[in-house]
Amino acid sequence: MPPLPAEGTVLAVLGLAREARIAADPAVEVILSGGNPDRLRALLAARPLGGLRAVVSFGIAGGLDPALRPGDLVVARAVLAEGEAGPVRFAACDRIAAGLCARLAPLGARVVSGDLAGVESAVMTPGDKATLRARTGAVAVDMESQVAAAYAADHGLPFAALRVVCDPADRALPAFAANALKPNGDPDVPAVLAALLRREAGIGALIRLARDSGEAFRSLGRARALLGLALGVDA
Question: 5, 12, 3, 1: which is closest to 223 by C-alpha?
Fold first, then answer.
């Protein structure tokens, strides 16, 4: 297997401002979608070419494998996406994936290897998660990995993904969650409050989501500390 490019930064592709703050270091360039894959594609298309050694999809995800709980980490073997001509599989770089698993070994059984599903809109219900799991075999789902993987493939760059489960397979997301982000990836608090006033979600659902996301981000922070410089992508 050829060595990874020795020069350049690692491009971390993610959805949320909080993920970007966790990922950042001098060897990492971050670009985020704010929950909008088309916006992410436009931002990547506008980025000047060159200067990268690898592309890493990084952040939280929805669980598809019923065995995974909030805070469990997935190192991707591949990303599965729907293309115009049918399903598309983007393989992750074996060398980077192995390196991530080695660095995350202290976290033990909470780290799994598996395929990610990349989707264009949020998968909200346990039924939809089960359908996606049956169709793809993926263990988790997010809205950035397919965009990041396609960008890496188009530019001949190694690709990897590290995602932490937030909402497990058996838990629905509140309806407001699909539109609860600002373009910069920060939570849209007025939109959440308006959804509560319209009774689109109850306090209980909001508390559960806060609890799950808190566990996910704590786990992501622990993983980030173990990865070290450049998200653990070694030359």
Answer: 12
Q: 10: which 2 tokens?
A: 């690692």
Contacting residues for 130 by C-beta, under 8 A, at least 6 apart? 64, 169
Predicted confidence (pLDDT) at residue 84 exceeds the cutoff of 80: no
Q: Does the reported pTM lie above 0.85?
A: yes
Other Cβ atoms within 10 Å of 50 Cβ, number: 8
Helix orientation angle between 189-197 and 203-227, rounded to the nearest 10 degrees? 150
Neighbours of 122 (CB within 10 A): 18
Residue 15: CA count within 13 A, CB half-sphere: 28
Percent of the residues in the chain that have a pLDDT greater than 70, as a whole number: 83
Contact 182, 150 (CB under 8 A): no
pLDDT greater than 60 at residue 195: no
Say if CB 151 and CB 44 are below 8 A apart.
Answer: yes
State whether the Cα torsion 212-63-154-98 is positive or negative. positive
Spell out the residues 6+ positions from residue 54 whose beta carbon is closer than 8 angstroms to its own: 4, 5, 10, 11, 93, 96, 152, 157, 158, 159, 160, 233
Q: What is the pLDDT of residues 102-125, one digit of tens each?
A: 999 999 999 999 999 999 999 989
Query: CA 172 to CA 129: how far, in whole Å?
Result: 9
pLDDT grade, residue 92 (50/70/90)?
very high
Q: Is 135 in a helix, a strand, or coil? A: helix
